[in-house]
From TrEMBL:
It holds the Pfam family TraX. Keywords: Membrane, Transmembrane, Transmembrane helix. It comes from the Bacteria. The keyword Cytoplasm does not apply. This is Tat pathway signal protein. InterPro entries: TraX (IPR008875). The chain crosses the membrane at residues 18-36, 42-62, 74-97, 109-128, 135-152, 172-195, 202-224, 236-255, 267-289.
Length: 290
């Protein structure tokens, strides 16, 4: 549980709803760049500001998991939206369904990331309970989630005819790490870091920035520094994923521990709706441009 706040302090600062609202705005800017970047008219700063969305949403996911009165319902609400989006992504990627004439298709799968992280969180909660049966169940769940991509890959190699089945399972039923950018290891690590540091806001901010800066700045820099045309300024103009943690820091420190107005249905519906609306508009614009 996060640290308690005095009543006066709790009225100040940013609520959970406010953080989600900021995350939504930054996400929309990022996705405008993502879907319409081919026009050359969308400034890069839209994508830069968009780095803020994931850390805020992941923080709110941890808060939601910790404070919800019914974790099963919380999980199901996320899964029931993530599953059809994952299934559509599978058929877009491997069946060519609804792909734009230039071959582009949306790979957004943050809800699948939430599904996977919620399962990790529950596994670690069971382990922390120190009850033998729960500990065993939690360890089994965590190990399975880590090994699931390897197990599915091995099965499809041994039995190629099962590839479609495991593909649907991995995209829609039980998401696998690393099949899209949203489900990549660094995103999962940020979500886990925020969970393990949940008892202290300062610890969460430190954990967020250590993972984000370490993965997206340090490791990227070590990889690209030897490239012939690399310049240090590119860490701020091209490889700027690391900015998300820094941008989120002051906002997380202003969080007052309150839920706010909620607008749960809006936030759940907005994510898939805005993705497919922007995708359709980008398709129409591409056709209009000839």
């Amino acid at each position: 549980m996060t640290e308690s706040l005095r009543p006066a302090a709790a009225r100040r600062g940013l609520t959970d709803t406010a953080l989600k609202g900021i995350a939504v705005v930054s996400m929309v800017l990022d996705h405008i760049y993502y879907f319409f970047g081919y026009t050359g008219c969308i400034p890069t700063w839209c994508s830069m500001v968009g780095r803020l969305a994931a850390p805020l949403f992941l923080f709110c996911l941890v808060e939601g998991f910790v404070h919800t009165s019914n974790r099963k319902k919380y999980f199901f609400r996320v899964w029931v939206l993530a599953a059809p989006m994952g299934l559509l992504l599978f058929f877009m990627r491997y069946g060519g369904w609804f792909t734009r004439p230039d071959g582009f298709y949306p790979e957004n799968s943050m809800l699948s990331t939430f599904v996977l992280l919620l399962l990790f969180y529950q596994g670690f909660e069971w382990i922390a309970s120190r009850r033998a049966s729960k500990v065993v169940l939690g360890l089994a769940l965590v190990v399975f989630l880590v090994l699931w991509p390897q197990l599915a890959g091995r099965c499809t190699l041994l039995f190629p005819q099962t590839a479609t089945v495991f593909g649907v399972l991995g995209y829609a039923v039980l998401p696998m790490m690393n099949f899209t950018g949203d489900l990549s290891l660094p995103v999962i690590l940020v979500g886990l870091a925020l969970y393990f540091a949940k008892r202290s806001r300062i610890a969460q901010v430190i954990a967020l920035n250590v993972v984000s800066f370490g993965w997206h700045f340090v490791l990227v820099y070590l990889q690209v520094r030897t490239w012939p045309d690399f310049q240090m300024v590119q860490m701020f103009t091209t490889y700027y994923e690391w900015m998300g943690g820094l941008l989120a820091t002051p906002l997380l420190l202003c969080y007052n521990g309150q839920r706010g107005a909620g607008y749960r249905r809006f936030f759940y519906a907005f994510y898939p709706a805005h993705i497919y609306i922007l995708y359709a508009l980008s398709w129409l614009l591409l056709l209009a441009m000839g």
